[in-house]
Write a structure and sequence with these properties.
Blueprint (H helix, E strand, L loop, with lengths): L33 E5 L2 E4 L4 E4 L13 H11 L14 H12 L3 E5 L2 H20 L9 E5 L4 H5 L3 E3 L4 H8 L11 E6 L2 E2 L5 E2 L4 H12 L2 E6 L22 E4 L11 E5 L1 H4 L10 H15 L2 H17 L7 E6 L4 E5 L6 H9 L3 E2 L1 E3 L3 E4 L7 H16 L1
Parallel strand pairs: 3-15, 5-6, 5-7, 7-10, 10-11
Antiparallel strand pairs: 1-2, 2-3, 4-12, 8-9, 11-12, 13-14, 14-17, 16-17
Helix pairs in contact: 1-8, 2-8, 5-6, 9-11
Length: 393
């Protein structure tokens, strides 16, 4: 996608939120009302332009990527939704292409990451029950998650272990070979990168070690890439393929191209075939997802992401000691812990708005930088310069 060079946006004050009424619920983090967007930029209702560094998974490919808009427009003229009682001509093709991309046998297209997590747990429960006594009933299987993520599973009784600590995980999993017992752990559910904790990436070798520990004990490994998958880390997905791959892989909104919600679970046919969970993704979502898979299959976006990741890390490191205490990067993604002297993360984010840059935050002191993969290196440099100026006060 080609993005024209952009003049710095207006630096007019945006210290107060628009006075217009809004939908119910919590107010937005930033006082900006966006009207249009393209590539890495958004424009508000008053014509001010901002470089968007808040591109969560749904906007990994940028705003309104022409290839994705084209397939969406074409599909809008054919079919957008169907009843669960019938099949359509898009979901199977998307599932097959996604499975091939991530090195799985099959995939289940769904709407939201929450649905995908639930489907993975349903597959885990069925597998565990068949291993324990061959019957469909019995106790729900225990799962282990890393502290700092999957709070919904923790509330439902999941065991937590420190993220990145393989010894703690081994202790929680117990002795080798007990995963088949009804009262044993049935699955480990992990994210490669924990964004909610301010962007904490798995240490080198950790995911491979988790894979080995699960294999040794007959336990399923579920890798949740709803936030990190889709090229942001420099590969289509984490943890390679073949023997190093997870048993179930959850992918998320990046494949919806910022146009529609889309998620999926990929894995073996033994785990997913016959699962009593309907493929809920619409034909429109599946068509867009299929095109996103084709884009990733060329490897061009991943190559671009690796170059951008190196560039981002090099430009951010000089900020340490200049208002930033720690920089953590994972692909084209960064978490910056702020020196309390420069203010809270929310305050810094709001000051950046007046300089035409949008960032997100994690907690009180961490700024998150999550550019689209179509951003130019020069645009990234300009945004980091605005951050430097804000930190300098």
């Amino acid at each position: 996608m080609t993005i024209a060079e952009n003049d710095p946006p207006s630096l007019a004050s945006t210290d107060t939120a628009p006075a217009t009424s809004r939908a119910a619920g919590a107010p937005p983090l930033l006082p900006v009302t966006v009207a249009t967007a393209e590539g890495a930029w958004v424009t508000d209702v008053e014509g001010r332009r901002y470089l968007d560094l808040t591109a969560e998974p749904a906007r990994t490919f940028g705003h309104r990527h022409p290839a994705l808009v084209a397939v969406a427009t074409e599909q809008l003229g054919r079919l957008t939704a169907t009843s669960p009682a019938v099949a359509d001509d898009r979901r199977n093709a998307f599932a097959a292409a996604l499975a091939e991309l991530v090195g799985a046998e099959t995939a289940l297209p769904l709407i939201t990451p929450l649905e995908a997590v639930d489907a993975a747990l349903a597959a885990t429960a069925r597998w565990s029950q068949s291993r324990s006594d061959g019957s469909p009933g019995g106790r729900q299987p225990r799962v282990v998650v890393a502290a700092g993520s999957h709070e919904r599973l923790v509330e439902a009784g999941a065991v937590t272990v420190p993220f990145g600590d393989i010894d703690a995980l081994d202790a929680a999993l117990g002795s080798r070979g007990d995963g088949a017992r009804e009262d044993g752990v049935a699955a480990v559910v992990l994210e490669p990168v924990q964004a909610a904790r301010g962007l904490v990436a798995a240490p080198d070798g950790y995911l491979d070690a988790v894979r080995r520990s699960c294999t040794e004990r007959g336990i399923l490994f579920v890798l949740d890439e709803t936030r990190s998958g889709g090229g942001r880390l420099g590969d289509a997905v984490a943890l390679g393929d073949g023997g190093a791959a997870p048993d179930l892989r959850i992918v998320g909104s990046a494949f919806g191209g910022g146009i529609v919600p889309l998620a999926a679970v990929a894995g073996s046919r033994a785990l997913l075939d016959g699962l009593p969970v309907a493929a809920s993704a619409s034909p429109l979502a599946a068509a867009i997802g299929h095109r996103a898979v084709e884009m990733l299959a060329t490897g061009e976006l991943q190559t671009r992401a690796r170059a951008l990741a190196e560039h981002l890390a090099a430009r951010l490191e000089p900020l340490v000691g200049a208002g930033v205490t720690t920089v953590r990067t994972a692909g084209v993604w960064a978490g910056l812990d702020l020196d309390p002297a420069v203010g809270t993360a929310h305050e810094v984010a709001r000051r950046l708005v007046s300089r035409g840059v949008l960032v997100d935050v994690a907690g009180e002191s961490t700024v998150l930088i999550e550019p689209t993969l179509v951003i130019r290196a020069t645009e990234l440099d300009w945004a980091i310069e605005q951050l430097r100026l804000v930190l300098a006060g």
